[in-house]
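Recall that a protein's primary structure is simply its ordered list of amino acids. Everything else, from secondary elements to tertiary packing, is in principle encoded there. The following example makes that idea concrete.
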Amino acid sequence: MKNIFFLLLGLCVGAMTSNASTEAAEANLRSTIDQVLVVTKKGKGGQSMANQLTPILVRHMCFESMTRRAVGPGWRQFTPEQKAEATKLFSKLIIRNYSKKFTPGELAEIEFLKPSSPGAGKVEIPTKTVYKGSRYNITYRLEDRGSWLITDILAEGISFVANYRAQFDVLVRKGGAVAVIASLKQSLERT
């Protein structure tokens, strides 16, 4: 009987910790999105939008984790310098592509749905977003890295990181880190 009591107590404490974690992650995500919406409401388009969003996104997204996961197992072949360069380039590309999705003055309506915790220190927060009359299901994956950081975004069930992973796998097989970095540089020149 005593063991059952401690088991139930442990489950209750675990549930409270999980709820506190999901609440903290959601509060951080809401704050991040609010900051982005302020910029998109007042901001100018193009490169200016990217420049304005960069400080917000750098604080709230884990670009190193996103880059590492997007590259996949080939990441182990990268030197520390190549890892730093790939992360820097990939983060610029993400921010530029992300900022192009916004039209200055157009605001998104976002409904936060029930978050879930797929594992310790991880939270997934689904949203329903309406932007320019279109509806989108967007799920944000966050990890506790001292603070809650976005590590992936799923739009209509498609992982941002997995999408790049398919592209980078081919590059890693053909030319390793050099090919990935060259591709990122070319993509930035086109954006």
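Strands lie at 109-112, 116-119, 122-131, 134-144, 148-155, 158-159. The first helix runs from residue 2 to 42.
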